[in-house]
Structures are given as C-alpha cells and as structure tokens.
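Structure ticket #2291
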Amino acid sequence: MVKTAGKVIPVAIATLLICSEVFATVVARVDRADIELNESFTLEVISDTNIEMQPDVSILDKDFYVGQGSQLSNTTIVNGQIRRSKTWTFVLMPRSAGQLTIPSISIGNESSDPLTIMVSEPSYAPPGEADVFVTSEVDFDETYVQAQVLLTVKIYRAVATRQPALREPVISGVETLSELAGDDRSYEAIIDGTAYQVVERVYALYPQESGEIEISPARFEARVLRDGRITGRKMYESESQSVTVLPVPAPPADYADAVWLPARSLQLFEDWSAETDQIQAGEPLTRHVTTSVLGQLETQIPALDPPAVAGINIYPDKPELSRRIESGGIRGVRKDQYALIATGEGAVVLPALEVPWWNIATGKWQVARLPERSINILPSGEPAPPPPEAAVAVVAEEGAATATTTAVPDRFWRSASELLAAVWLVTLLAWWWSSRPKQEPRTPAPTPVHKLQARQLRAARKAAVAGDSAGVRQAMISWGALQWPNDAPRSIGVIAQRVSAPLADELRKLSSLSYGPQSGEWDGGELASAIRSFSVLKDESVEKGEFLPPLMPTS
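Resolution: structure written out below.
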C-alpha cells in the first residue's frame, strides 16, 4: 500500500526540533512523527538542569493513552566540565486519527517546545484471525532517478515465536542502491481488539536510472509457541511492490547548470570564526557552510564553490560528511569550510550562495539561499617601519668619520655574540639527547579475538561461495575454538548445536553430506548467506536464537 507523498509537516517539525535542541534545556522528541491509529510510539523528555524533578505528563491524557514510563541518568565530562542530564521515556498511543499536538512538557520552570505528529487510519487489517503476518509498503509509487524511496517492512506477532528470521526482499529491475534507514523499531499495535507486537524495518532505496523497481515479498520464518507447544518452522510473506522511476527533469531556466539533487527538504546554515563587521587585513577568517538534506545520502550533496571576490583570497578545506536517521529517512549533512584572507581594506560584499534542488514531495524545483554578506576590512595592525630619512639624519649629525669607526666594532661584537649563542644551543641539545631515557622497543599488541573471529568467518564465506566444503569446515572449527576456548568444538555438527538458524541448518546439511549416508552436490551459497547473520546460543541444550529483538506478547 502506498502512503501520500505530501508529508511536509513532520519533516518541518523534525527540522525545527534539531535546531532547537542546541539552545533548549528541556527537549521533547518522538521516535516516529508519522504513525497509524492504534500504534504505540515513544516520547523522550530530556533535561540537563532540573534532573531531580519529574516531568508533568498529565497534560497528555487528553489525546493519548500514556503507558508506564522509565528514566535514565547520564553524566559526561568534557574538558574538565561535568554535565548531567536525565531522560524520561514514555510509551504513548493516540486516541484518535488526525494531526495531534504533544503540548509543552514542564520540568520545574523549564518547558519543551510542542511537537506535532500525524496519525492516520490503519492501512492494514490482519488476514482473518492470523496470529502472525507481514506487511510491506513504499512511500512513493512514482519517483525520480536518485530520489529516496522508503520501503517499510512490518512483522506483526500476537503469539510468541522462536528462531525468527527475516528474509529481506529482493530488489530487481533498474539498478538501485539500498541502505538501512536506522535500527529496527519495536512497538505495540492493537488491531480488532488483538494486541500485536510489531517489529519495523525501513530501507532507503535510491534508483540510479529510470524504469521500474520490482520489490519481492518480505518473508518471515519462525516457529510458533502456542498452548505450551512449539510448531515447526513456518513462513509468512508480504505483498510485492513496484515503483516507477521517472527520468531527471530539465533544470530551471535561471539555473541552467544546476546539479540534480532530489530531496524532501534542504537547509543551508553558516557560522563564522569571528564577527565580520571589523576584520583586519591579513588576518584569517573561517566560514563554515552546512548543507542539510533530508532524503539524500551525504555523498551525493554537491560541493559549494563560492565565487571569487576581489580583495579576498578564499582557500577551501576538506568537507565533513555525516548522516542522521529521521522519520523521513536519511538526512545527509555536508559541512564545507573556507579560510578567507583579505588582501586590502574597505567594505567587501560576499555574493549570496544558492543551491537549486528538486522537492520530491511537491514535484517542483526550489532554491535554498544564504544571503549576501558585507565584510568591513580594517588596515593591518602591524606597526609601520621607520622611514629611511631618519637613519640618514642620525649619520649626518654624528659625522662620517665617527660612523665609520663605530660600525666595525658593533658588527664584530654582534657576530661574536651570535656565534657563542649558537655553540651554547648546540651543546645544550647534545646534552639533552645523551641524557634522555632509552625507550624500549614496543611489542605489537596482540590481535583482538573479535578480529580473528571475523577473519575466520570471512574465510568460511569465501570457501562456501567457492564450493570448498573442507575449507568451510576448517574455518568454522577455527572460529569455534576462538568462540569457546574452554570447550572447543571438533566438528561442524557440534557448532550447529551452538548457533541459531539458518546457519545451524546449513551446517547440519554440510555435515550430513560429508559424513552421512547421503551424497550429492553441495551449494554453498545459502551457507555463505547464513554466515552473515547468526547468533550464538546462550543455552546450548536448547536451540534458540533471535535475529530480531525478542518480543513476547503480553497476556
């Protein structure tokens, strides 16, 4: 099912929240700003001043069901300064659909800014009376080349499961870059009176050419625990999805050389190392320009090249790239740094910086802009050298003969003093070098165990892809010796009893083909895939492993 494209309000709220956190002493934030009715979400209230008081959340009862809260204290020390903060976490469930406002939360005399969330009607109903089902959806069924499409996969479980494993959907059709948009989220949903524990996983897709994106169903495998009995492995799958990718539209008329940059939102920020109203000539001035783009990777944000300005030399530095995960997907951040050195004096105007970008929500070109800035350059503060006429006048007063007789002794003693100072400095350096303690040669630190384990797992995957069963056994047994040094396994069959599915199943297959009565060809592709994601069982007598966060529905 496809959601509407115009989700501008949650994006704007998230942007304002990011900017306000720098100055506010009480900050409120939610893990999701766009939810469905009867779904729970998390509200966090953070304070760095009144940490001994409790937030007043009774004001939330009007529009939300408020669950039991928890709190976490945090202490950080930076440059000798101690900072303490406390975070209160509440699980909320909306009472109605529509645009709801989380009012200001008060802690003592401080209050947070209000938040706005969008609550939509449930888009899915369970098939019949299913205890487990899987859904998938995309936020756009039509997009543009390199524009972000969010694929959301949800697993609903009304019963406990064992050995869960999510088979990721296969992306085919046009070439598409796929990135995980944050960690898995867990929350509760009530559908037709049935309480479901939900695990949500979001993928950010970036098509690299026009055409069609074909998305296969997401498949969830698990054993169901019902009435004290556990079933065999069952598979549940979602519906398939498809997205039409349109070609890049023509640039705007006023910006014929505009770089293609599709996004949900784009902001420009700047800050300076000093005030720009009075800068002395020759002194360096640093300008930081930050481009924040929601719905785009940080590596796709173009560099800002400020135009040349007469009277100022501009030296760009290496940019800083980072990303954040928000409800609208991946926010790429690029921070460019420029050193400016004035060569003259007077007023200089830096032209405005403009970045054209394509708004994927409205389907139109927009321009982000930093206004022009005037810089007042003062003369250099260095004292002026004495004019040569003054030196000539002194010589004239003393007489030519006197100047000749005194100049030679002055130069001699000055040269002698410099020579003695140089000899003394060399002697001092030689004494320091001979008296310094001898450093013993450093022995290299041993390789950490986790790196050795990763090396063996890579060798096992490589051998599996090559169909080398002996290489797989040797690498996995070497990995097992590192994992269980006090009880090293001697065969891959023993390792299969200590790891979760699907790796356990693939190791048993390989062991059966190697030592059992059966024979046949072996395909290591499934085993190589299983090695990428598995867990070590804590209790070796019971086969259990969680690829996803353990969720036990409440009775």
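Closing remark: The longest strand covers residues 81-94.
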